[in-house]
């Protein structure tokens, strides 16, 4: 039976529903628990909790006999002190933020947990060889079936609230939680991690993995290129007063660079991984490189030159695949994986949606 289940899982798809019921999901029977998570400011977030394939195999009868609202995946996660949880922060387009009512209606179908390649990521993680990794993904406020309107402060509240729910309600300790983020989600995951490390009783996570990150919103907008080749806003970087004027136009600035620095400085133990593709036409991979150096410099009070960092870091060449840099300082590990080829993204969006 286990072999049959594993075989069928390769054909499993997760389909996002237009309503708030389970009828919009097509997957192994009840493998996905649909949740509605409260935020600290009164919003409700639509979320999926995906059970690991090996857990499903061991408890297949329980999953199959459960009612549609029994949330078997959540019950098993809560009971198993050895289980681990990946909280997934997907990307959205900046164009979807600061929404008008018409745009907000469009957000019901854009930037959701069920969009395109995201479901493949859930399947890959939950089907891993360890067999004990659950995936929690959620719609930010103003997107999909979540309530509210998207703003930087509001979406950071979403991220903090979901992590708090995982620890306090699902009972998963922070050392069993990995924050996995892509594109704009990297700003949210970093902000949330910086929040928890700044509490009177510091909370640190098993790891933070950010894919296609950027230092801040003005910087990534200035790097925007038509078709990935024509950087139409590049001249702003050479004219100081125009750059200042441009930056003041942003209501939400998403200053990930500052938050990365604060996170690294305040952490006692940290595993931080940056991933980017050199083929990314929307967010240049050099931005991840900048964040890597920023994070490394924050591991010490001394000023580090780029030459010193390059001398101390470990470098592994991956041939045509790219390269990896690892910098270790005490209990802090800063890693960057630069890949020569990445997934497709929609060029019409200003920031990769991480399909």
Task: Characterise this structure.
This protein has 355 residues and is of the alpha/beta class. The protein has helices at 2-9, 53-58, 60-65, 72-79, 101-106, 118-126, 152-168, 184-197, 217-222, 240-248, 256-266, 286-297, 306-312, and strands at 32-38, 44-50, 84-89, 133-138, 177-182, 207-211, 270-277, 314-317, 322-329, 332-339. It has 13 helices and 10 strands. The protein has a 10-stranded mixed β-sheet with strand order 1-2-4-3-5-6-7-10-9-8, sandwiched between helices. Strand 8 and strand 9 (322-329) form a beta hairpin. The relative contact order is 0.12. Residues 1-13, 17-26, 99-109 and 344-355 have low confidence and may be disordered.
Short description:
By secondary structure, the protein is of the alpha/beta class.
Indicate the radius of gyration in whole angstroms.
Answer: 20 Å
Structural class: alpha/beta
User: Termini distance?
Assistant: 33 Å
Order of helices and strands: HEEHHHEHHEHEHEHHHEHHEEE
Mean pLDDT: 82
The tally of helices reads 13
Q: Which ranges are low-confidence, i.e. pLDDT below 50, for 5 or more consecutive residues?
A: 1-13, 17-26, 99-109, 344-355
* Widest β-sheet, arrangement of strands: 1-2-4-3-5-6-7-10-9-8
Helical proportion?
25-40%
Main beta-sheet strand count, sense and barrel state: 10 strands, mixed
- What percent of residues are in strands? 15-25%
Number of strands: 10
Principal-axis shape equals: globular
